[in-house]
From TrEMBL:
The lineage of its organism: Bacteria, Pseudomonadati, Pseudomonadota, Betaproteobacteria, Burkholderiales. InterPro entries: LysR_HTH_N (IPR000847), LysR_subst-bd (IPR005119), WH-like_DNA-bd_sf (IPR036388), WH_DNA-bd_sf (IPR036390). Keywords: DNA-binding, Transcription, Transcription regulation. The keyword DNA-binding applies. One of its GO terms (molecular function) is transcription cis-regulatory region binding. PANTHER family: HTH-TYPE TRANSCRIPTIONAL REGULATOR (PTHR30126), LYSR FAMILY TRANSCRIPTIONAL REGULATOR (PTHR30126:SF94). It holds the Pfam family HTH_1. This is HTH lysR-type domain-containing protein.
């Protein structure tokens, strides 16, 4: 009879798309993952994957099994944790974050290793795209990311954690004595990628403020954008991450906007099916933020 471990590996393969990627999530070698899947198929009497070389994809039977396997694992994890008087959390989750929030998430996860040694957290760094949809699709169990203007996807919850102000950033010497509007109209504008929620947020803000630009260079990395502004390649409007030292940098001119909407909301998206595990990360993030806000 197939073990719970085999079903956990099956879900990892289904969500990651390959034996190699799944092996990192379940702490096995790709060969061991392949052997477990062959054993599971033998036990169930049906093939679950279409295999083409090193590429695997769920077939029709595999797609039908996936939600049942996830429900089984969820119930099993709940039974393991439903021990009155015993609050140890047991299980494995994958949690992602945008680059500017990864340090906060990593510190939180390191602390969880001490308080919940049987909770395994796999971290992923993501730079763009609709990360909330990755949670909905089951590719991640939770993600610390930007709240967009759309509805929270079905089956997903969102907890606001903190906000980051939008700021104008330029080389200090080049910006001296010049207005934001003048600099935007005459210098290269370093535009956060419009395919990202941050880029769309900045564009909406600029339209509201009637801020015009002439030439633009669209980029994905906020860190690179600010580095180019520091080198006087151009100017930009970006969210300022928590604990950023931009305002104390003698090479940068950082200006805030008198607009309460000039900010991006950061929070934790969680899969409702996995919230019995991801809630531990959420509580730890809230504790970490509350502690850092204490004078």
């Amino acid at each position: 009879m197939s073990s719970i471990r085999f079903f956990r590996t099956f879900v990892a393969v289904a969500r990651s798309g390959s034996f190699s990627a799944a092996s990192e999530r379940v702490a096995l070698t790709p060969t061991a993952v392949s052997l477990q899947m062959r054993a599971l198929e033998t036990d169930l009497g049906q093939e679950l994957f279409d295999r083409t070389g090193k590429i695997v994809a769920l077939n029709e039977r595999g797609h039908r099994l996936l939600p049942k396997a996830e429900a089984l694992l969820s119930q099993y994890d709940e039974m393991r944790n439903d021990d009155e008087g015993h609050h140890e959390v047991v299980g494995a989750i994958s949690v992602g974050a945008v680059a500017t929030s990864m340090a906060l998430l990593a510190r939180t996860v390191l602390a969880l290793r001490v308080s919940h040694p049987k909770l395994r957290v796999h971290l992923e760094n993501n730079y763009s795209g609709d990360l909330s949809m990755r949670v909905k699709e089951g590719k991640l169990d939770a993600v610390l990311a930007v709240k967009n203007s759309h509805r929270i996807p079905a089956g997903t919850t969102w907890t606001p954690l903190y906000s980051e102000p939008l700021v104008f950033v330029a080389n200090r010497r080049a910006a001296q004595g010049r207005s934001v509007k003048d600099l935007l109209q005459k210098r290269l504008f370093l535009q956060p990628a419009l395919s990202t929620h941050t880029g769309a947020l900045v564009e909406r803000f600029m339209r509201r403020q009637r801020l015009q630009v002439r030439d633009t260079l669209e980029m994905n990395s906020l860190r690179t954008i600010v580095e180019l502004a520091e080198q006087d390649i151009g100017v930009t409007i970006v969210p300022m991450p928590r604990n950023a030292s931009w305002e104390s940098d003698e090479r940068l001119s950082v200006r805030r906007f008198d607009d309460p909407r000039a900010q991006r909301a950061m929070g934790l998206f969680e899969s409702e099916k996995r919230s019995h595990l991801t809630s531990v990360v959420r509580r730890s993030l809230l504790d970490e933020l509350a502690g850092s806000a204490t004078p």
